[in-house]
Amino acid sequence: MTVLIAGCGDLGTEVGLRLAAAGTRVVGWRRSPDRLPRAIEGVAADLTGPLPPVPEDTDVVVIATAAGERTEAAYRSAYVDATANVLDALERDGVSPRRILFVSSTAVYGDFDGGFVTEDSPAQSTAPTARLVREAEQVLLDRSDRGTVLRLSGIYGPGRTRLIDQVTSGSAVLPAEPQWTNRIHRDDAAGAIVHLVTEVAEPAPVYLGSDELPVDLGEVLRFIAAELGLPEPPRGGSAPTRGGARRVDSGLLRSTGFSFTYPTYREGYRAVLAGQGVRHP
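The structure assignment produced for this chain is given below.
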């Protein structure tokens, strides 16, 4: 069995390493394959250009692309065009994987005024970038009956330390009003992908990937400051949550037997502060 990871960056590499450790052959497509660890067979590929041959025994494809900048053009290229291009390559080479998983974002939901969202909630964000991610999801689901979409909330983890950096630099500000946030540790995001493509025989079309505790941003900032022995950040104005206020319910993912290593921000940020794990280049 071969797993092809199309877009083998930090998250894709972590997925590949976990699969390779279980004895699976992993092929990673990315522009700079020489940066991949030896356990992953790196192949040079621009997902928006002519793609290399797909290994004929490919059983699973993971599409884990990322836009280089937050523009509509960059998102269309990285998500919509790249997804269609990967599907075209599979058809070109006559390869029919058992599962194709697309890594998406909970940003597709937009603002729910702090309410909970599930897989059944309308994914109708008006943000242009979120709409393009949703379009890429639909490209997969319309063209394949073997497609699965995993919508991840904000990823943090090794090397993804934006909130920690804000606290240590003194630039962190507690929102004046509750500001709901959702997150998932990079390792749990990778674990969820591996779980869905190896342990779930008949996955649903869409899953939400977010830890078990949606939480006010101010609570997270206070926690980080306390863990570092720093003063509580000052309270300031209320900035809108990027993409809208919502609370993500990942109950469907957990119902498949998946368990979080970092079920809340507390366990996850303690691991990051302790220097556990590395961000893959």
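Interim note for the steering committee: The chain has a mean pLDDT of 96. The helical segments are 10-21, 72-93, 128-143, 162-169, 186-198, 217-228, 251-255, 265-273.
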